[in-house]
Amino acid sequence: MAIQDYTKVITFAYTNRGAAYGDKGNFDAAIEDFSKAIELNPEDVATYHNRGAAYVDKGDFDAGIQDYNKAITLNPSGAATYNNRGFAYVAKGDFDKAIRDLSRAIDLNPELANPYNHRGKAWLHLQEWEKARVDLTTAKNMGINIVAAFHNFYESVADFEVQHGVQVPEDIAALLRRY
What we know:
Blueprint: H1 2-23, H2 27-40, H3 45-58, H4 61-74, H5 79-92, H6 95-108, H7 114-125, H8 129-141, H9 146-151, H10 157-164, H11 170-176
Helix pairs in contact: 1-2, 1-3, 2-3, 3-4, 3-5, 4-5, 5-6, 5-7, 6-7, 7-8
């Protein structure tokens, strides 16, 4: 029994240190610690989720998605994991998969604001203006700073329009503009 207890403590330490490394932006060290924790406890949903987030933060979207897949296999009702995998799909430009995951996250927990924001960005890319307007407005009303979130990816609305060869409707552009 003592060995199992120590293994739990060691696993917990790797997981927490991995989170601390991630908070500091040291994603390689975070991934290394999360991987050690997974070796010790391959059924821990949260550690797959956290390692997936570290991969995504590092820009390795495919590895992040793979970890989110495993987390979802272990816990198919994890709204936050669907949200994060949906975000990774948005970042990759796979908007149909993003919308599927983000819609699932909303179905599982409609009180989460981030899935509305991420899905709104996916709708923008697909030029589904009304759906984008609804989701972005919902996210904003739920307390998300949609302007800052949009500008994490684009310098301006004009930048988005040039990159994607579209004209964003003025009311949506106004939602996303810095003043």
